[in-house]
């Protein structure tokens, strides 16, 4: 009897140990999967992976800022050049507080002012996921800013002006869907990092949230409640665009194409709908009309449009739903800054292809065929025939051409 009792005790102890181990494995797996999803929501891959690289999150991608170039660091679990030797607390401090392991401040190219809205648990789950990716030995010199901007001491002043730590707080008078969308937009999605206008010091203009900004040679348009360029977009249109990169009005390309490919297309339908519901509730100014385009310029631009553009966009500019943008409702057409319109005329653009919209049409480049006066004319025509945006000058076309050549070279 004693041996039987001892055996039963041993087996029970073994079973309890196995049960605890299995429970821990399930919990760890759940954390990793949550982290995988949140890393996509936070769009970590866009900055920390060189496009076309076989080594995700290994860093080395240059990040163009108004002050110079920063290079995204390695966040794989390599212990020497990545974050493998970091504690969870150190990772959280970097993500949500902008604090490096050595106590120095991070530059806001790392969007810690937005990630500060995330919960500590969410950030810990992202770390759990990153710990499972392939460790890559890749040492990156992140700070390539010119003197004195490369001195991080100035970040202490910047933080006091623009960094407000604190997790996202739900609004009780709003729906669960609205609050989920607000959390994603204001936190991991860090939409304001591109879409909110910036001060001369690179901080958000807090009185103009999500009202549009130009960076890295692309216009991130006003995405507020529909009083601006997205006036005719419904919440369903926004959700479809985030999920597929296409809708009846527009197609994502450039930086937004990357965001869709690596981030929003990987979110659940519920989450993209939540983001759309929140964005449609964010107030913004009514777009100011400017119909001062010269009649002769409009006539010249119209002729160029009919010759080069109408085959795809159609004579009435309506395009093809879910494939070719409708010029009357494409957000970047009717903005004050013509950068994106000039860029796609000069250089062309490839729209994003996603699982739900696998066809990503491309617009050919016309910079080789049109001079600066002609580029300005067709840009002015497109922006004024289907909108009321300011006319474009040949000098603006010339500057954009030079900027594109500089990036290429």
From TrEMBL:
List of residues binding heme c 2: 191, 194-195
Domain of life: Bacteria
Annotated stretches, region: Disordered: 389-409
Primary location group: membrane
Cofactors named for this entry: heme c
Presence of keyword Manganese: no
UniProt cofactor note: Binds 3 heme c groups covalently per subunit.
Basic and acidic residues biased stretches: 396-409
Binding site for heme c 3: 309, 312-313
Gene Ontology molecular function, alphabetical: electron transfer activity; heme binding; iron ion binding; oxidoreductase activity, acting on CH-OH group of donors
Keyword vocabulary terms for this entry: Cell membrane, Electron transport, Heme, Iron, Membrane, Metal-binding, Repeat, Respiratory chain, Signal, Transport
Binding-site residues, heme c 1: 44, 47-48
InterPro entries according to UniProt: Cyt_c-like_dom (IPR009056), Cyt_c-like_dom_sf (IPR036909), Cyt_C_IC (IPR008168), Cytochrome_c-type_DH (IPR051459), Membr-bd_ADH_cyt_c (IPR014353)
Residue ranges of domain Cytochrome c in the record: 30-134, 176-283, 296-386
Subcellular localization, as worded in the UniProt entry: Cell membrane
Entry GO terms, CC: plasma membrane
Cross-referenced Pfam families: Cytochrom_C (PF00034)
Signal sequence bounds: 1-23
Record-linked PANTHER family: ALCOHOL DEHYDROGENASE CYTOCHROME C SUBUNIT, BLL4482 PROTEIN-RELATED
Protein name: Alcohol dehydrogenase
Organism: Bradyrhizobium manausense
Lineage of source species: Bacteria, Pseudomonadati, Pseudomonadota, Alphaproteobacteria, Hyphomicrobiales
């Amino acid at each position: 009897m004693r041996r039987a009792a001892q055996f039963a005790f041993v087996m029970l102890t073994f079973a309890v140990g196995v049960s605890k181990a299995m429970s821990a494995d399930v919990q760890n797996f759940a954390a990793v999967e949550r982290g995988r999803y949140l890393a996509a929501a936070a769009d970590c891959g866009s900055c920390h992976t060189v496009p076309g690289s076989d080594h995700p999150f290994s860093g080395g991608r240059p990040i163009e800022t108004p002050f110079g170039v920063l290079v995204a660091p390695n966040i794989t679990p390599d212990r020497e050049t990545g974050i493998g030797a970091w504690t969870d607390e150190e990772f959280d401090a970097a993500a949500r507080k902008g604090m490096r392991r050595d106590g120095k401040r991070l530059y806001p190219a790392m969007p810690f002012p937005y990630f500060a809205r995330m919960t500590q648990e969410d950030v810990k789950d992202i770390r759990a996921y990153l710990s499972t990716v392939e460790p890559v030995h890749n040492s990156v010199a992140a700070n390539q800013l010119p003197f004195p901007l490369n001195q991080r001491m100035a970040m202490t002043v910047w933080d006091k002006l623009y960094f407000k730590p604190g997790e996202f707080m739900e609004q009780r008078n709003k729906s669960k869907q609205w609050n989920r969308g607000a959390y994603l937009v204001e936190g991991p999605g860090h939409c304001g990092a591109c879409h909110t206008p910036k001060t001369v010091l690179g901080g958000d203009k807090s009185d103009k949230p999500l009202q549009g900004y130009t960076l890295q040679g692309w216009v991130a348009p006003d995405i507020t409640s529909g009083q601006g360029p997205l006036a005719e977009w419904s919440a369903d249109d926004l959700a479809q665009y985030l999920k597929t990169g296409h809708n009846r009005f527009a197609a994502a390309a450039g930086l937004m194409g990357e965001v869709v490919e690596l981030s929003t297309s990987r979110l659940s339908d519920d989450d993209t709908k939540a983001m759309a519901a929140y964005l449609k509730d964010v107030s913004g100014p009514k777009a100011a009309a400017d119909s001062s385009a010269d009649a002769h310029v409009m006539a010249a631009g119209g002729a160029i449009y009919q010759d080069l553009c109408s085959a795809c966009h159609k004579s009435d500019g309506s395009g093809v739903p879910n494939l070719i943008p409708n010029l009357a409702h494409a957000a970047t057409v009717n903005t004050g800054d013509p950068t994106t319109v000039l860029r796609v005329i000069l250089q062309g653009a490839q729209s994003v292809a996603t699982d739900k919209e696998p066809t990503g049409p491309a617009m050919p480049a016309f910079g080789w065929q049109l001079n600066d006066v002609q580029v300005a004319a067709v840009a002015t025509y497109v922006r004024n025939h289907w909108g009321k945006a300011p006319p474009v000058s040949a000098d603006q076309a010339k500057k954009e051409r030079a900027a594109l050549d500089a990036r290429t070279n």
